[in-house]
Specification:
Layout: H1 7-13, H2 27-39, E1 49-54, E2 75-82, H3 87-104, H4 118-121, E3 131-139, H5 148-156, H6 165-168, E4 169-171, H7 180-183, H8 187-194, E5 205-210, E6 213-219, H9 233-250, E7 255-258, E8 271-279
Parallel strand pairs: 4-5
Antiparallel strand pairs: 1-2, 2-3, 5-6, 6-8, 7-8
Length: 282
């Protein structure tokens, strides 16, 4: 997978766009986007299927709904998967890389998990019986002004606020907050994680840096995923993995993701181990 954009710049450029100007992305640009998607590989080995939807080409498109969250968008990309271990993390990883790429092109996107009408959008998507349709994003160019719903939602979820570095990251165990000085070469990759998007801006990732390992944990929000048949916050862990992985690669730091049997540390309440990144060659 070749990344032809600056990761830190793209992370800072990317923001959730909910009000679009209605302009259709031209064919040449869409071809570039599809070519880039074909190059994306996730470190967990799961298969992710992409579906392009143009609502103007669909029958009864007036019924397609995002419950007022998205306005003016004509094009969408939906992702479907078979529910299996690590697939939601893989989905989050891949779609976030696509979104960063699109941000570098000046194209707006927005993570939609619980705020789109799956039944209606699924009419434009070839979904198998054993597949899930967890997320979708609009594609397009931001309108000059945010609509009222967008402004209200950003205020509600405190979209422009992030938890502090030492609230999310730890050294060796959860009793020792990680500082910029202790993080050393991992500071920028972890800061890119801190700036990442997440469902309702809950930032469920917690990370412990220990020797040659960086351990990723999910801080579950009790009841948050009860409306779904899967843990939607695992997608956020995939987003965190994407920001981290792209950053270490850009810095020339070698390493790879692994799943350990036991991280041998006491975990806080509602926190569970998900995966690790190990520094060094394979």
């Amino acid at each position: 997978m070749k990344i032809n954009f600056n990761v830190e710049e793209a992370v800072n450029l990317r923001s959730s766009v909910r009000n679009y100007d209605g302009q259709i992305i031209d064919t040449a640009t869409m071809n570039e986007i599809q070519t880039f998607i074909q190059s994306i590989e996730n470190p967990f080995g799961n298969k992710i299927k992409y579906h392009f939807i143009n609502i103007e080409e669909m029958k009864e498109s007036n019924k397609l709904g995002t419950y007022g969250v998205i306005q003016g968008a004509k094009q969408f990309v939906g992702l479907t998967v078979r529910l299996e271990p690590m697939v939601l993390e893989a989905l989050g990883y891949e779609l976030e890389i696509l979104m960063l790429y699109l941000a570098s092109m000046g194209i707006g996107t927005c993570w939609l998990g619980g705020t789109f009408n799956r039944k209606e959008f699924a009419k434009g998507v070839d979904i198998k019986e054993d597949e899930l349709f967890p997320v979708i994003t609009p594609l397009g160019y931001a309108a000059k002004k945010m609509h009222f719903t967008e402004v209200a939602m950003r205020k509600l979820i405190k979209a422009d606020q992030r938890k502090g570095f030492e609230q999310l990251f730890f050294k060796d165990n959860f009793q020792n907050p990680l500082t910029k000085e202790l993080a050393k070469e991992m500071y920028i990759p972890l800061e890119m994680v801190r700036l990442g998007p997440s469902a309702s801006n809950k930032q469920p990732w917690r990370i412990v840096q220990s020797k040659d390992y960086v351990h990723f944990f999910e801080r579950k929000d009790p009841g948050y995923s009860k409306a779904f048949s899967y843990d939607i916050q695992k997608i956020d862990l995939g987003i965190a993995a994407a920001h981290f992985d792209l950053s270490v690669k850009e810095l020339g730091i070698q390493g790879h993701f692994v799943k350990l049997r036991d991280v041998e540390m006491i975990l806080p309440e509602h926190v569970e181990y998900v995966f690790s990144w190990k520094k060094g060659d394979f």
